[in-house]
């Protein structure tokens, strides 16, 4: 593999981002959707925040109030043995998540060269109703004509579903409702209609039985989705044996739709791999990575808010090279250039 | 409550149903969808079957093969301490369901009086592809014009999703694909378009957080669904505090859409309740039962394959009385007539 991580990595760090309010701090800037807009490369960043606190014996967690008008702060006692604080991402009790430790919103960053970004001082999309009360996360951006469609995880006490929004200019955004019900994440819309229909990859998480695996759905209008089909599942062992889901918006190549996806093993080590899907029938898997395309190896990938994670939500095809933008360790944004040929070589 | 359970209850019992093959036995005939077709009342029954076995130390479980062409039988050793056989409905290991103990298909029963039914000797819909490999369950039938739409649970190792089929005559059936991805059950389509859109109730089961609660979705064409909204959730305590989901297809009344739904407490005791939804905006709850409409009390409701269950998938409005068809104890079909006024009296 001839991966070139940018010498500027991480290209966006916590200190590059102003919190949305003075009593909050930024825990991470990661898992950004990517778009080419006029002469700019735009990242739609996920910004995770939590209230400032100077006490080691408490965790302050933010969530939206029921009316969607304000952010409430709840205090959890770290010395309470009834709670489990071992996963930095959430608070659990009796094995069940009771609250996330941060509230995420989406923020625009702009660049001329795709490496040096200016992060806007204000949120682009902030949680605004009950089904977003625990945050909006992991956006993917798909350009179709002049409109950029944004899918994102919509988290609340009701579960995590897939929200849809749109923009023409990355200044004003319009929500279009929940396109997939809980539990579903990692939704990305294909950039072209295929045989007259829109397609999207998605990743349901069933409770009673079944695993977090990749599915595909169709739509006549982007708002309503159906004909859900199973696309691909966990491997028996190895890097994508515990959970998986779509990553970057699929890229059209000569050999098929190239979809970079994430997989994790039972130790929560997240890598990126690739799958090729048939151009005319994206429900058909042509080939899939047997070894990861990118593994967490750099210091900023191994250490962070949640370590050993590389997680891409968007990539660009520059001639024969894929420029992959990815969240590293749930804390920073990074970029890597990977020759298309090297990605193909991971495929069986 | 002035509930009149039919004196003929159970109106369909195991011995009334021929197994689909001679080496299988019927474990239950229950949770039937209901339709009025010409001069007949039709029940679309769920028939659960398992292979015949004369050994007490084994459990034989059926599932469809990968190609969808044949039913395989797998043998589980009841003396193996690694498996948990305590729930009659499934086999578990390490707290996770590994296999259902029966394979369900759908079967037509016909009646002139709505009480005495003739059960057809052959399945109407039998599992036929990988996403139905563990069975098709709990149908709901909605008539729109001349077409009867059937939603059903489509179970497989990939989880339980919502299948859609249609028929004009209850003799030939056409599948229309998976309308909602796993994990989702208890889907019922409203019998009229409302403001130009189709609506359905559904019951996702999120894994990471969230509960089995009722949602509503919209569709332009019945195949593709979106604008998912949370409808109503578990009560703090009581009969519908652990899980809930839609039951009978909603009935139009003067006061609103009357949706009979099921709820269970932490001891898996399933009751039926009711909710009234706004006629013009069915996402708006007008009122909901604080006490159950029907509780498992009769012997055939308390004792059976899975006891203490009343579970309706369909009901008819006969003047001012609701005739509710329901599965009892996951084993037999029963009928109860309930005055509309008594149902209204349960609503807060």
Assembly type of the shown chains? homodimer
Largest sheet of chain A: 5 strands, antiparallel
Broad structural category of chain A: mainly beta
Beta-strand percent range of chain A: over 45%
Inertia-based shape of chain A: globular
Largest interface: A-B, 44 and 44 residues
Total number of strands of chain A: 25
Continuous helix count of chain A: 2
User: Percent of residues of chain A in helical segments?
Assistant: under 10%
Distance between the termini of chain A: 15 Å
Order of helices and strands of chain A: EEEEEEEEEEEEEEEEEEEEEEHEEEH
What value does the Rg of chain A take, in angstroms? 19 Å
Q: Name the poorly predicted regions of chain A.
A: none
Mean pLDDT across every amino acid position of chain A: 97
InterPro entries (chains A, B): Glyco_hydro_beta-prop_sf (IPR023296), Mannoside_phosphorylase (IPR007184)
GO molecular function (chains A, B): glycosyltransferase activity; hydrolase activity
Protein name (chains A, B): Glycoside hydrolase family 130 protein
Keywords (chains A, B): Glycosyltransferase, Hydrolase, Transferase
């Amino acid at each position: 593999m001839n991966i070139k991580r940018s010498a500027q990595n991480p290209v966006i760090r916590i200190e590059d981002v102003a919190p949305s309010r003075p009593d909050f701090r930024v825990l991470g800037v990661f898992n950004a959707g990517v778009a080419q807009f006029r002469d700019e490369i735009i990242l739609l960043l996920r910004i995770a925040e939590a209230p400032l606190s100077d006490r080691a014996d408490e965790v302050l967690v933010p969530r939206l109030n029921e009316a969607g008008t304000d952010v409430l702060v709840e205090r959890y006692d770290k010395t309470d043995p009834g709670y489990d604080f071992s996963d930095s991402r959430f608070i659990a009790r009796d094995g069940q998540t009771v609250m996330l430790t941060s509230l995420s919103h989406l923020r625009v960053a702009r660049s001329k060269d795709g490496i040096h970004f200016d992060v806007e001082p204000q949120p682009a999309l902030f949680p605004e109703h009950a089904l977003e009360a625990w945050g909006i996360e992991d956006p993917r951006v798909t350009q179709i004509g002049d409109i950029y469609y944004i899918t994102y995880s919509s988290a609340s006490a009701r579960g995590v579903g897939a929200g849809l929004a749109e923009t023409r200019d990355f200044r004003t955004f319009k929500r279009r409702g929940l396109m997939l019900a809980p539990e579903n994440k990692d939704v990305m819309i294909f950039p072209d209609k295929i045989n007259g229909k829109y397609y999207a990859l998605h990743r349901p998480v069933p409770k009673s039985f079944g695993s977090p695996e990749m599915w595909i759905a169709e739509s006549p209008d982007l708002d309503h989705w159906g004909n859900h089909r199973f696309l691909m599942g966990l491997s028996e062992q190895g890097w994508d044996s515990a959970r998986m889901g779509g990553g970057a918006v699929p890229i059209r190549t000569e050999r098929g739709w190239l979809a970079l996806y994430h997989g994790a093993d039972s130790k929560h080590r997240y890598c990126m791999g690739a799958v090729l899907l048939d151009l005319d029938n994206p429900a058909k898997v042509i080939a899939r990575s047997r070894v990861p395309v990118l593994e967490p190896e750099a210091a900023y990938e191994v250490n962070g808010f949640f370590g050993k994670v590389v997680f891409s939500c968007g990539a660009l095809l520059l001639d024969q090279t894929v420029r992959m933008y990815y969240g590293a360790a749930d804390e920073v944004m990074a970029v890597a250039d990977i020759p298309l040929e090297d990605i193909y070589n991971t495929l069986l």
